[in-house]
Amino acid sequence: MTGAPIRVVIADDEPLIRAGIRMILTSDREIEVVAEASNGREAIDLVRAHGADVVLLDIQMPVMDGLTAMGELRRAVPSARVVILTTFGERDNVLRALEAGGAGFLLKDTAPAELIAAVRAAAAGDAYLSPAATRHVVDQLATGHAASRNERARARVAQLSARERDVLALLGEGLSNADAGKRLHMSEATVKTYVSRILAKLECENRVQAALLARDAGLEPA
């Protein structure tokens, strides 16, 4: 381990889900699960108490749901990165969470390696986009929101250069900086610079919001 471990709080009202997530995460020596919460209110208190880096937050919980808790966490502990736990049956809530600045989302039946990758990405200040899950959810949501969203998205994307639009299109496909660089014959560092510029121009808080915007604008990879 090269530095301090990534401190994680797990918030889910199902003990078996929490236990499974804890077992997966603690298999990585660079991740430490510092606390578990059964509702959103507990999650906020525990994140404050333990100074967590990443919060895995279920949407449907008693006392305080995940979306409400995420809003409070972003105000109370802005340094904590929130990754939403969800199922395909909660697609509308997922969109609301991502648009509100969540650092990504994971399906509860996601593969262990993907769970660990999501926590690492969030802790590094990035947003995690699972290509398969993200494409599925965003494609499903786009059908019901196309009329009101697409025109605004195209207007925002129009301010980007052609190369920036190429990079944004690949974000919409869920590609990492390294994979996008291979597709565009650019270094990973150069792609990272483009991503930072794109986020600033589009006033997006993270890659997830930018990816949703790319999909709404109908951008296709070159």
Task: Please describe the topology of this protein.
Blueprint: E1 6-11, H1 15-25, E2 31-37, H2 40-50, E3 54-58, H3 66-76, E4 81-86, H4 91-99, E5 105-107, H5 112-123, H6 131-157, H7 162-172, H8 177-184, H9 188-202, H10 207-217
Parallel strand pairs: 1-2, 1-3, 3-4, 4-5
Modified residues (4-aspartylphosphate): 58
Keywords: DNA-binding, Phosphoprotein, Transcription, Transcription regulation
Domain HTH luxR-type: 153-218
Textual characterization of the structure:
By secondary structure, this protein is an alpha/beta fold. Helix content is 57%, strand content 12%. Strands 2-1-3-4-5 form a 5-stranded parallel β-sheet, sandwiched between helices. β4 (81-86), α4 and β5 form a beta-alpha-beta unit. It is globular. 40% of the residues are buried. The mean pLDDT is 84.
Which tags fit this structure?
alpha/beta, 5-stranded parallel sheet, 10 helices, 5 strands, Response regulator transcription factor
